[in-house]
Write a structure and sequence with these properties.
413 residues, 22% strand, 18 strands, single chain, 42% helix
Length: 413
């Protein structure tokens, strides 16, 4: 399990006050809070640090490469547009399985962690701007300033070709995604209708890129992970790989861009074995029951491999509530397995939450961010179930209180 500590970065000030400031990153990690509280800031930093750890472990770069010329801030934080969030007293710490990374007093330090094992990840950041992709015929031709969005569009372009004429099931409304190769179009097919994605509702335009990319990468990593178990690289192969990396860096005739391309080709010999899916606002433009179905799909993809991680930001109380159902579903499934006469309980459970979308409470952690003081706190739980006393549910209660206040005014007339 990796951890991150953040102080005085962007909207985050004092950060997390428990556990010496360390935030745990578990199999499912959820960040909730108001606009401008720092949810996406943390998600982007996690993405950044995990990518650096991956590059270091694989041997793509030496630690000094990130330290020199302030590349951590100017290149990798710029990728997520958080390069201007730094302050004079910014403190950032990351503990990974193979590397520990610190940024304090304006300096970056990287230490190799000799303890533990490391599984090479496929890291995907799913931005909130994804619905924009569906409204344009050829988004890959646009000159975008967001590198993260460009990468997501590239993965989306690759993934849509896997939704062939037979279609790919969507988790809402009994619909399918169909890809028209001839016209390079995605169609949404339902009961008695078929429309282009560019003409579909906003919910479909947000859902399809998220679902398609997550589905494609989760399946790809699952295949690679199974292959890696059978054909792992020997020590000799690993040494030859590192020598190849060294030769690329020593070749003065190559530009930085050519070096990165050569390293990418060489690195493809490594099989990725886990999928880290970082999703902004999975609920975007979706009806509550659709939010549940989308969450169940993301959880099922996350359960493909033991080391997979799903990191989400949300404004939706329904996401927390449905995540609670997934946790309760796991506990109930375990209880059913210990019972002799189940009376069809498994079938009944699957109608509420599919077995492959359940999750243990020990694998889930939820953090609340306060935009007023820049603090972070962990959402407590009761017997493994996340507390209903959270910012999002409190907003619902506030609505009821406002309605009661209006009734009091009316009664006083």
């Amino acid at each position: 399990m990796s951890q991150i500590k953040i102080k005085n970065f962007g909207p985050i000030k004092e950060g997390y006050l428990e556990n010496d400031g360390w935030l745990d990153i578990r199999k499912v990690t959820l960040f909730i809070g108001n606009q401008g509280s720092g949810k996406s800031t943390i998600a982007k930093l996690i993405s950044c640090f995990k990518w650096i750890e991956k590059a270091l472990t694989r041997g793509d770069y030496e630690p000094n490469w990130f330290i020199q010329r302030n590349r951590f801030r100017k290149v990798y934080c710029t990728y997520h547009k958080i390069q201007n969030y730094f302050k004079d007293n910014t403190e950032l710490y990351y503990k990974g399985d193979s590397y520990w990374i610190d940024y304090t007093n304006g300096l970056l330090s990287i230490t190799q962690n000799q303890i533990g094992s490391y599984q090479l990840p496929q890291i995907m950041y799913v931005p909130a701007e994804r619905n924009f992709i569906s409204t344009i015929r050829h988004p890959e031709l646009l000159k975008l300033s967001s590198d993260a969005l460009v990468e997501f569009i590239t993965e989306f372009d690759n993934a849509k070709k896997e939704a062939n004429i037979d279609g790919l099931n969507l988790p809402i409304n009994d619909t399918l995604i169909q890809y028209d190769r001839l016209n390079d179009l995605i169609n949404i097919k339902g009961n008695g209708y078929k429309v282009r994605l560019t003409e579909a509702s906003s919910g479909f335009q947000s859902l399809v890129p998220l679902h398609l990319v997550s589905w494609s990468l989760a399946h790809s990593v699952k295949i690679q992970a199974n292959r890696a178990k059978k054909t792992s690289m020997s020590s000799d192969e690993l040494n030859r790989f590192k020598e190849g990396i060294s030769d690329i860096w020593l070749n003065d005739s190559l530009t930085d861009e050519q070096r990165r391309a050569a390293i990418s080709v060489l690195s493809s010999k490594f099989n990725k074995s886990v999928f880290i899916n970082i999703v902004e606002e999975p609920e975007q433009n979706l009806f509550p029951t659709a939010q549940q179905n989308v969450l169940n799909s993301l959880l099922s993809f996350n359960n493909f491999n033991e080391g997979n991680e799903l990191i989400m930001t949300t404004h939706s109380p329904y996401i927390i509530n449905y995540l609670t159902i997934a946790i309760q579903g796991m506990a109930l499934n375990q209880k059913i397995n210990r019972t002799k006469n189940t009376n069809g309980a498994i079938d009944k459970l699957n109608k509420i939450v599919p077995k492959n979308s359940t999750i243990s409470d020990k694998d889930v952690i939820i953090y609340q961010l306060n935009e007023k003081n820049g603090s972070i706190e962990k959402l407590e739980n009761f017997e493994g179930v996340p507390s209903g006393e959270n910012y999002l549910n409190q907003s619902l209660v506030m609505g009821n209180e406002l309605f009661d206040a209006l009734l009091e005014i009316e009664q006083g007339l």
